[in-house]
């Protein structure tokens, strides 16, 4: 079988078409229209603004969501959190780094090994109990693990990874 340039380009296009469709549906392709609440930089292939991927709340809501019902050490009682699985977001962005640097509005920053992210946990929560989270409520974004589901999620390391008022992610080696 002879692989011509035209065949090779057609093959590459076919591989990339589903990715661009997903990214367009998720709001990564093209500029965000609302207030940017998350900027992702570093080793990502999908970008929409000055070498980064920016998200407003609607572009995050357009991505597949996961719901987690759990207690936290920072809140009273069980709460229902809704958001995008962090591993899914990184996959959609074509992430190629091994470390996720998560930073909050107040510049609190923590490094999370990408290998530690499960397909469904943690989530990048944008709702708590069906309502948007505001800054005074640890929002607009909060990295949430299903703390009640396993003792593995009840460690000081996992708690330190639970960044609230998150506004930046950077993918590094």
From TrEMBL:
It comes from the Bacteria. Residues 74-146 form the Oxidoreductase molybdopterin-binding domain. Gene3D superfamilies: Oxidoreductase, molybdopterin-binding domain. Keywords: Signal. Residues 1-24 form the signal peptide. SUPFAM superfamilies: Oxidoreductase molybdopterin-binding domain. This is Oxidoreductase molybdopterin-binding domain-containing protein.
